[in-house]
Amino acid sequence: MLIETAGEFTRHIPKESRLLGLDVGDTTIGLALSDVLRSIASPLLTIERSKFGKDAKQLQDIIAKHKVAGLVIGYPVNMDGSHGPRTQSTRTFVSNLSKQVQLPMLMWDERLTTMAVERAMLEADLSRQRRAQLVDKLAASYMLQGFLDSVK
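^ thats the sequence. predicted structure below, dont judge the formating
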């Protein structure tokens, strides 16, 4: 069930439950997991995208394993606030996922998350290969942490 506002979303989530953050890209989905107190977001893993059914099954397994109560999905709005092809692609993904996963879902503005993560990795002097391995799950973590901080 897609929920429009952060306040309404948090009312649908049981206390002391985990959230899963998703950074949905064309080829990968970065995942981050909150602690049960919803204070800290940690990078979890990156799923290589294939067919939607397989991607949804992987997400369902992760949700069950970690007892996730809600999904915060990065919403790739353009810098000027407009919506482009990635925004529509994410909306389609969320619409399809909501038919497979019966959890509250919130789309959260992810502007600048990947850029902030890339900058931090460059400052840490990580190789290009290592940055490519980490960027999606770190971006999901950064986005989820932004949500957690905003509702505290």
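The longest helix spans residues 128-151.
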